Amino acid sequence: MSNSLPYSVKDVHYDNAKFRQRSVSQVISQALLTSNGKRDYLKCSTGKFLVLLMIGGLAYIILAHKSDVHPVSDGVAKNDGSKEGDNIMTHGSGNFRRFWRKPPRLPPRLSPDEISSRNRSIQESTKRAEPEWIARQQKVKEAFIHAWSGYKSYAMGFDELMPLSHRGVDGLGGLGATIIDALDTAMIMGADEVVYEAGSWIEKHLPEKIEGKGQVNLFETTIRVLGGLLSAYHLSGGNQGGIPGDKGPKPSIYLENARNLADRLLTAFTTSPSDIPYSDVVLREKSAHPAPDGLSSTAEVATLQLEFNYLSYLTGDAKYSIEAMKVLQHIKTLPKVEGLVPIYISPQSGDFSGDNIRLGSRGDSYYEYLIKVWLQQRGTNCSYLYDMYVEAIKGVRHLLVRKSVPNGLLFVGELPYGREGGFSPKMDHLVCFLPGALALGATKGFTKERAMKENLLTFEDMENLKLAEDLAKTCVEIYSVTSTGLAPEIAYFNIEGNSEGGPDGGNKSSRYLNDIIIKPADRHNLLRPETVESLFVLYRITGDSKYREWGWQIFEAFEKYTKVDSGGYTSLDDVTMLPPRRRDKMETFFLGETLKYLYLLFGNSTTIPLDEYVFNTEAHPIPIISRSQ
């Protein structure tokens, strides 16, 4: 099979010609001229006589039997197990007339220009509905302002808001993570007052916090704080990018803080005995150490590269990119299970630890960054990342993708004891990043229409895009199956020969009530973004409005059950009961990711286009370097 789907106007003309109506004389002459034996039988007088006799006989039959013609439905004979020629003279003249029936009138294939014209009419129809989506997008902006108002009132300067008890907590190192996570969302939404408040706090307070704070997690600090600062630098007009405005400090403030922070985070790489960094850094001491068990998460060490690569690009100092990319280059050399990797790795030895394979926690963003770092660095010497991604997705399809019973939802399970152990039908909400990553990997960030028009899609790409759409539906059904319409942290699936059994989601009208099991310990909702992230990416790539509708349903459920009147939104303890118990925590990613993806989902596709940006795993948009040069 070829690597692409060739298509040209020449093909269109050929295919359409096959279905043009032909006269009786054209049928006969074409049959005679294309016969393999024509040269032989026309050379002798007997052959010529037989040809004339046949033509005369056929003409007599046609003229003598003008009645009793029975129509043939749609011009296609039914297959009764015998050949057409066997029945020519057995059912009277009507059946004989089938010999002359017209070729099947299949719809001709459209040329690329005709496809574009048709799609323009569809787009015009879509535009008529745009005022509704603009209004919905405004609702998301209002939700963001409400979330920020609660944080500003009760937790300004802390990492996170506890909206029910009206106080702030530092659970991420004390660098004001919500402020930095939310800043580029505010810039994209045009929430100028928030941009000014957040930017002013960063300019005034962040430098001393970076200098004076203690232990932080390398991964969390990189994706939330470093990624947020770099995105804010670009979107505020730094390096002539983004959405420049006069709100907040100069772009250089964000870049200076990003560099100061990254210089301290680098110690996790440079003090490790292997190419795998330590998990924790003490900022004020510029020192690093491993986690208590000595291991790092595979996802965490492999989800630093977008940020450090972009910092090297901005500063001209290659040290950040070199240290971060060593991790992926090292993992390339390690043994894998059909491209899949265990969720733990040792900074001491540089080897994987254990056999647990999953795309949920501690495994997820390893696979996400394989495709995203490749997209960011296209044109440089990192084609090995795409090869690793392709191999890994083949492994996912072969080893982890299953169907639920009784209704056949596709889902991604786990191998907690490796390939030789049993399969677990457990799927974290975190796995719902995968539909978006698959779609990006298939079209390379272009729309499906453009990718097909430019012959960019292989058969495997089309299969992966279909898998992305099927998995996105499953992720949405995990929401719909609950009483609140919000997803639990973890779901299990009934599969053939292994029925998990257990409590359902509570929505008795859901078709998939018996496919999905939600265990008591897994019923909480943390306001996570992964599903709406994939809906955003799939809408941008396919243009299918169902992804917007699904996103709106999720947003309405957030509004109904997690909004706190005094400001902010809260996590839930149990999404299967009404009213749901509240947990008193607003994660930073609700402002940094969930609301940002919903806002972009309902908005214009020219805002942060996917062929010009990659989103880091905390939804901070970073320009594709190969197109920024």
From TrEMBL:
GO terms for biological process: carbohydrate metabolic process. Ca(2+) binds at residue 617. It catalyses: N(4)-(alpha-D-Man-(1->2)-alpha-D-Man-(1->2)-alpha-D-Man-(1->3)-[alpha-D-Man-(1->2)-alpha-D-Man-(1->3)-[alpha-D-Man-(1->2)-alpha-D-Man-(1->6)]-alpha-D-Man-(1->6)]-beta-D-Man-(1->4)-beta-D-GlcNAc-(1->4)-beta-D-GlcNAc)-L-asparaginyl-[protein] (N-glucan mannose isomer 9A1,2,3B1,2,3) + 4 H2O = N(4)-(alpha-D-Man-(1->3)-[alpha-D-Man-(1->3)-[alpha-D-Man-(1->6)]-alpha-D-Man-(1->6)]-beta-D-Man-(1->4)-beta-D-GlcNAc-(1->4)-beta-D-GlcNAc)-L-asparaginyl-[protein] (N-glucan mannose isomer 5A1,2) + 4 beta-D-mannose; N(4)-(alpha-D-Man-(1->2)-alpha-D-Man-(1->2)-alpha-D-Man-(1->3)-[alpha-D-Man-(1->3)-[alpha-D-Man-(1->2)-alpha-D-Man-(1->6)]-alpha-D-Man-(1->6)]-beta-D-Man-(1->4)-beta-D-GlcNAc-(1->4)-beta-D-GlcNAc)-L-asparaginyl-[protein] (N-glucan mannose isomer 8A1,2,3B1,3) + 3 H2O = N(4)-(alpha-D-Man-(1->3)-[alpha-D-Man-(1->3)-[alpha-D-Man-(1->6)]-alpha-D-Man-(1->6)]-beta-D-Man-(1->4)-beta-D-GlcNAc-(1->4)-beta-D-GlcNAc)-L-asparaginyl-[protein] (N-glucan mannose isomer 5A1,2) + 3 beta-D-mannose. It comes from Nicotiana sylvestris. This is alpha-1,2-Mannosidase. Pfam families: Glyco_hydro_47. The active site is at 220 (proton donor), 364, 489 (proton donor), 530. Transmembrane segments: none annotated. Keywords: Calcium, Disulfide bond, Glycosidase, Hydrolase, Metal-binding. SUPFAM superfamilies: Seven-hairpin glycosidases. GO terms for molecular function: calcium ion binding; mannosyl-oligosaccharide 1,2-alpha-mannosidase activity. It comes from the Eukaryota. GO terms for cellular component: endoplasmic reticulum; endosome; membrane; trans-Golgi network. Residues 103-130 are annotated as: Disordered. Pathway: Protein modification; protein glycosylation. It is an enzyme of class 3 (hydrolase). Its EC number is 3.2.1.-. Its cofactor is Ca(2+). The keyword Protease does not apply. Belongs to the glycosyl hydrolase 47 family.
